[in-house]
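Hey,
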Amino acid sequence: MKTLMVVDPQMCTECNDCITACRKEHGVARAKKTSTVPLFCLQCHPDKAPCKRICPTGAIKEENGTLIVDEDACILCRLCMIACPVGMLVINDEKKSVQKCTLCMDCDRIIPACVEACKDNVLKIFSVEDLEDLKKDMSYVNVFEEALKVYKDKI
């Protein structure tokens, strides 16, 4: 099942709790803070993800619809970091590997650490199927159509 992170920028209070929780969970923050809101991996389609397509060792692999970095196969060439359209791959110096957001699917969490830490309910997780159901609700149609125009070629 393909899962996506949705951020409500108008609700964000810039507290950094999501970034702190990610760093605590993974040893390095896999999300970044812009001047106003957190920025997360776009969770690109596994067949189209620039980071996976450019990796010379095949270290970025699909597991259950999510791309995960095989730390043993990563040679730290940083090509994936350059290819990422939003620059969301980071280096974990301790593990000597590139890492990316997996929505915490690579650890024993049901809810991603960042979502759980967000006291303002800014971060939400949806499956692609959930989004299709929401599109049928007429109050969301205009919002989804505008979002799809922006992100159509990126996911």
